[in-house]
Amino acid sequence: MRATKSVLITTLTWILVLLFFFPIAVMFLNAFKTENAAASVPPSFLFEPTLDGFRQLGERGMWGYLQNSIISSVTSTALVIVLAVPAAYALSIRPVRKVQDTLFYFISTRFMPLAAAILPMYIILKKLELLDNIWALSLVYTAMNLAIAVWMMRSFLAEVPIGVVEAARIDGAGFRTELLRVVLPLVLPGVAAVALICFIFSWNEYFMALLLTASDARTTPPFLGSFVDGRGQFLAVLSAASSVAVLPVIAAGWIAQKQLVRGLAMGAVK
Amino acid sequence: MSTSVAPPRAAVKSNSLARERRRERLIARAILLPALVFSLVMTQIPFLVTIVFSTLQWNLLKPKDFGFAGFDNYVSVFQSGDLLPSIIATGLITTLSVLFSVGLGLVFAVLLDRKFVGRSVARTLLITPFLIMPAAAALLWKYSLLDTNIGVINWAVSALGFSPVSWSTDHPMMSVVIVLAWQYTPFMTLILLAGLQSQGADVLEAAAVDGAGFAKTFRWVTLPHLRHYIEIAVLLGSIMLLQIFDPIAILTKGTGGTKTLAYLLYERAFIGLNVGEAAAYGVIVVLLTIVVATVALRTLFSVFKVGGDR
What we know:
CATH superfamily of the largest domain in chain B: MetI-like
Low-confidence stretches of chain A: none
Structural class of chain A: mainly alpha
CATH topology of chain A: MetI-like fold
Number of strands of chain B: 2
Order of helices and strands of chain A: HHHHHHHHHHHHHH
Helix content of chain A: over 70%
Largest sheet of chain A: none
Low-confidence stretches of chain B: 1-7, 306-310
Oligomer: heterodimer
Strand content of chain A: under 5%
Distance between the termini of chain A: 36 Å
Largest sheet of chain B: 2 strands, antiparallel
CATH topology of the largest domain in chain B: MetI-like fold
Order of helices and strands of chain B: HEEHHHHHHHHHHHH
Mean pLDDT of chain B: 85
Number of domains of chain A: 1
Number of helices of chain A: 14
Shape of chain A: globular
Number of helices of chain B: 13
Strand content of chain B: under 5%
Radius of gyration of chain A: 23 Å
CATH class of the largest domain in chain B: Mainly Alpha
């Protein structure tokens, strides 16, 4: 009786999980279909796979957009880490006054609707002739992620035993040694988690990329969005493009599930 | 003799200690400064510029009409009647999406808390919707699943004998909420699952010994324990969902009561090209957000217990 119940619940769990994953399976399957097969009703689950959809991506210039996505995500993530780690360090290990106020300030920038800052940003960048510039977009992404990175980093640093830091100080370690040699190795997994999350946020960002880039610096999300205005059949090629676009983040997320949750919950969940 | 020597020595020591402290504080400030300055320049200055813009008569289509407008832009914002529906749309979409994703997340968290065959594979598959690029997710739902002619869901609907539904035009709000709930459920599941797993086995055993079944244990033991985690889930979900733009732009373009504040601003500034009015919207939205954020941040600080750490 208990065994049957357990089997039933397991089956139910799997059905629900597969139902939830189903849309993504549809996307990956459609990527390997011909346009006609992708648009067929009822949907075909057995079909001869083709790489036509992927071949068309090059014609549509997707590799350039992917390259821009990589540049902006990697640059902004690196900058965020360089700025956020020392700042979080000051807010958690070094004594600064007004810790609460500073943290409050940082997180409040995250609440600020990007839409409210985008208009002057657009006009300033236009005046500086930096619209459609991938480095300018990278700086905007750095600003976007900095707040949340400081918060996440702070939660990881708060776990470093204060004794370790004090011991290093008594041994006469300067500030640089203290941070780079003593503390940083201890929180390296945390740094990795923060970097991963910032990378994901930048990689997936649509709104600012849509407005601040046009062609040279266009990233993948607005390229995908441009399919909305498409005519004729495009489901297979759209699915191929989406599959390529989401793959890096899915892979990274699958590998680093635990760190992802902790980082995203800003340390509130261990 | 010795007593007369001691005081200066102590004074020297405390003096150097004080100097050391001051140096420490200086370093701390110095390493905090780059991040602070960068963030101020990139987020606060644009906002100040927005305030200035909001007092200008400035339409990119009519460059000759440039001038000072005072509060005219604010007056036209309030007279246009677009603000309130947009606030309602934002509130409704956020609330419904959070509600559904937390509810479903709770179900999944309870199911995944058991040991079963392929549990880690199931968890991995389940978190995937959260990792999908939101623009890709919205497109996937719009064309592959919700499309009137070729969507899989409509195929299922007609297979069950009903007539197909044009989801994104006839039920725009529901379409947006479905996509968002689908994307955010994994996030909620993971937070709540962490909550369930932090629950002591002894407590559950004690409940079992006392003869409490699953329902009773869940209601009186697990749920109170989860409260803190549910708060975190709701709070973080709301922060992310309040600014939602991508599914609106892709699925509905703000039709049918789904014009959120983010989309309204975008429409005014980049389709209407009226800089002054769009800036006025921006200022009002920020003021509104400050009200909401102050309440949320209070909770955030109590949930994260910031001050008590060190």
